[in-house]
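Please predict the structure of the following assembly.
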Amino acid sequence: MTPGESPPLAHPAEGLAPAGPRASRMARRRGLWAAAALAALLLVPFWLSDRYVMHLWVTFYLFAALALAWDLIGGYAGQLSLGHAAFFALGAYTPVLLLQRWGLSPIAGGVLGAALAAAVAVGIGSIVFRLRGVFFAMATIAFAEIVRALLLHFRSLTQGDNGLAIPFTGERPLDLMFRSEAPFYVIALGLVVVTLAVTARMRRSRIGYYLRAIRDDQDAAESLGVVSRDVKLAALVASAALTALGGTVYAFDIGFINPDSTASLGLSIEIAIMAIIGGVGTLAGPIVGAGMIVALTQITNAALGSRGGASTALYGLLLMVTVLLRPAGLAALWSRPTGRRGERRGAA
Amino acid sequence: MALLELTGLSKSFGGVRALREVSFSVDEGEIVGLIGPNGSGKTTLVNTVTGMERPDAGRVRLGGRDVTGLPAPSAARAGLARTFQSPRPFLHMTALENVAVGALLHAPRVADALRAAEEVLALVGLAGSSGLPASALPSERRKRLDLARALALRPRVLFLDEVMAGLNPSEQADGVALVRRLNALGIAIVYIEHVMKTVVTLCPRVVVLDHGERVAEGPPAEVLADPRVVEAYLGTAGA
Ligand SMILES: Nc1ncnc2c1ncn2[C@@H]1O[C@H](COP(=O)(O)OP(=O)(O)O)[C@@H](O)[C@H]1O
Ligand SMILES: [Mg+2]
């Protein structure tokens, strides 16, 4: 309890409870830093002329948002979902189809896709949350495979594995069609900010407390009045909706979607791995993980070509190393001070 | 009318009849001792009443309301709280946050729950540990934390499952004083314990379980002299 003691087993989600005016001053300072960082990031497109590099940034943001969204259920609720691609696909297909069939703006379509993903999450959650551990993970895989099979099957709607192309018909902001990549940079960054905001808010809320309790000991949490199924469902719904928004951004950035690029097991795994490698249950972890994997994929693809599966093997290796050496995730390497702050409060 | 009333409560696990038609009641403001050798069904009784297990048969009434077989969160809401025989803190949360989880039942706003949790921690003598992760607490303080969490639910009936086990005599004395204080707040307590000295001190009335059956009930001095009770304890070479 003395300030000099070394921190006990650092856990990223420890010590969220605010403590007095000092904490709020610190929060304000952190807010200022975040605003400054955001402003700096918004300036990037102005001196980045290379479209490809800009697209890499978009990819990074997109995966950061997806990993953050996944963390709501995978990290905070401790439920290893390997089916998130299904929500991504719903978010990709819904606005594309609505635009092509009825000319609905993908801004509205994206929101509808998110709503659809949320509704599906409620249905699927009430089934899979009966299962624990590996059975839960397997059920989520099965769910995503069903979505993929449906997308392949209903060809008249989805064109099956041929996929759907979104032809460029000129600069039309309301249809998310832009000549430049810069708007997508801003949109994807915005998605990260929204996802971060949702996550940060949830962490400090009643649901955040309940999720952490459930993850540590579900029976004990229930004995304290926590209806674990409802709490996990709420986390899954938020996670699914945000993941679907990611699907929308992806679809209109790339301009082409098919079941393999949006609903594959590989994508589900990739999202989960990013959060796990970076560190679940933290704000920085999934972002760091996304950055690492996106960078790594670039390097391996440049060196070995994208076909050999070299990057996949490398993820696996990285995942193994992380889990063995640093189960809290790589972001925990420099988030140590958080643990110390909690400790000082204890001594006060 | 009794506050908590168990009638004919039964629970089996496969072939093991952990509870056999157990009946007894707890009055408002009472401390009832629940004793019996290891494996006699004490913890199972707590689990069945507080919703971790569903009873096979029997009734549980709380304040006249039928709460039989309610799932654990509903039982907590109804006013039934328990500690765990081996404490089960949320290891990655601070002591304060652990208790706040319980306090959130009545305080939907986190800030209010944290304030309430602070008070409860002070009540059980853990104020100085509030910012520490539960994983950093030694076992005696984990027991207090378990207790604090349960108290944060503002229960009507509190089940204490062997809270004194493993404590040294001075810690036990503190524990007895604490249980008295909680009882003085108007919480009825079902006190499960092997440390007979504390049972005799705290409980005007005890219920004895043996092989899932209620074999005796009455003031501790009488009950402990009852041949069936002596046999139960000697028969299993326990306690
Ligand atoms: N979840 C369970 N599954 C199977 N058997 C159990 C379970 N819980 C308790 N039992 C059995 O029920 C009996 C009563 O156990 P318990 O209630 O823990 O006794 P006590 O708390 O009095 O020591 C024991 O024989 C125990 O093995
Ligand atoms: Mg027991």
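DSSP finds nine helices and ten strands in chain B. The pocket of adenosine-5'-diphosphate (ligand 1) is lined by residues B 13, 16, 18, 36, 38-44 (CB under 6 Å).
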